[in-house]
């Protein structure tokens, strides 16, 4: 069991007491998991730097070696040279100390929406873990101040736009570096504050960035990687929810459980497909396999494990690539404290995250399309096997003026279309920048942002589908009270109904949809979901 598994999963408005009682995630000398980043970001788990003296000594050796190397007259990119195409410009020794802060200042040109609190915390955690790898030549105090940002929730205002994903997430990460140096504004205790004042309240002076520390903070993949960790968790939850809704749709449509027989998936052995089928099969335990209205249900029901399975299998390698990036030294140059070498390379390139996010958003958009197709079956009297038109729950005397879930299905279709439109891969839109020094870039941060947008839209579709499917199941029980509803599905129906009552008379459902979407985005809708089991 990982450390984060001991943490309760409060929502993002959890109290300070909850955070104080959470088990700290250790940074340094070990690999970090996606779930631990999510625990830091969403569940407010604190971080603790490793207490291993050998790890701490190694961090210090890297900073000490870099100082000696510079004193010997060596040239190190971005330490006593200009940046990027200006690497041919020598920086006089009397200006070397000023160079890191200059880097943070001229990159203060981000635009777009600011990252939210969870995204900001995930970014800081990813940057801290990379620097803690011990190949960046930074001082231990820098890692301590990054940990302070997390533990005291001193959150830099990070604009989401302005990174091409190589040479790392320079512009957005400049806001983290600037905050450590006492510049720009941060969110602290619910208010926008000057960061220098916040550091004073916390008993610290702003850091004077040492040579390379500005570059080490900014020249890496932390923004795309932090966002990718959050995207992974939300996509994982959506696959489980889509399986649950498929099972409930099968009940509502008077469909067949036989479509999810284990033998079908043993003879086509994609692991994710079999996993999804098992979830649906478990949810339908006890349901009669005799044909209902059709010998074979339509594809959006019968082939649901095959669609969900693609996303499940994609998540397995997405995890591999995201966690590899998360647990990597991804700035430039790298400082090898053991062999005392400076290594100039391109580890800031975010290609693996870009491809992972481009791929994941396609898999997630397919979940939106699947759920939208299931919803379309449920509302249509030509396909819903006897349910009322548009799932209206109105009494016969008022049926003519009630339209149930008609508009919800239209909105779901719009959200699905937008999700599908946003699956255009960002990684193929590399742009040459910075005087053709950065002439092939990853676009990883744009890919991660796109993936989060697709997730947001798909969660809205899932909310619409959840409300409609619960309504449909309750209508099926009105038609035939003997309809078998397995226990997991009945518990799900009851949970959803507690927050969104049965629609007997038309009402505005926006508030219901927003509340349910928030629960889905927080991975909090399935009461039996605890990061591993489905049922």
- How many helices in DSSP terms? 20
Name the CATH superfamily classification of the largest domain: Fumarase/aspartase (Central domain)
The helix content is 40-55%
The poorly predicted ranges are: 1-18, 528-535
CATH architecture identity of the largest domain: Up-down Bundle
DSSP strand tally: 9
Distance between the termini: 19 Å
**Which strands sit side by side, in order, in the main sheet?**
4-6-7
Catalytic activity: L-tyrosine = (E)-4-coumarate + NH4(+)
EC number: 4.3.1.23
InterPro entries: Aromatic_Lyase, Fumarase/histidase_N, L-Aspartase-like, Phe/His_NH3-lyase_AS
GO molecular function, one term: tyrosine ammonia-lyase activity
Describe the structure.
The protein is mostly helical. It has two domains: 3-220, Fumarase C, Chain B, domain 1; 228-330 and 348-430 and 438-521, Fumarase/aspartase (Central domain) (Fumarase C, Chain A, domain 2). Helix content is 52%, strand content 5%. The protein has helices at residues 16-21, 34-42, 53-71, 93-96, 99-106, 117-131, 140-151, 170-180, 195-201, 213-218, 222-252, 262-266, 271-283, 299-302, 304-326, 351-379, 406-421, 444-479, 487-499, 510-521, and strands spanning 25-27, 47-49, 111-114, 155-156, 159-161, 185-188, 191-194, 334-336, 341-343. Strands 4-6-7 form a three-stranded antiparallel sheet. It catalyses: L-tyrosine = (E)-4-coumarate + NH4(+).
Blueprint (SSEs and pairs):
Elements: H1 16-21, E1 25-27, H2 34-42, E2 47-49, H3 53-71, H4 93-96, H5 99-106, E3 111-114, H6 117-131, H7 140-151, E4 155-156, E5 159-161, H8 170-180, E6 185-188, E7 191-194, H9 195-201, H10 213-218, H11 222-252, H12 262-266, H13 271-283, H14 299-302, H15 304-326, E8 334-336, E9 341-343, H16 351-379, H17 406-421, H18 444-479, H19 487-499, H20 510-521
Parallel strand pairs: 1-2
Antiparallel strand pairs: 3-5, 4-6, 6-7, 8-9
Helix pairs in contact: 2-6, 2-11, 5-8, 6-7, 6-11, 11-13, 11-15, 11-16, 11-18, 13-15, 15-16, 16-17, 16-18, 17-18, 18-19, 18-20
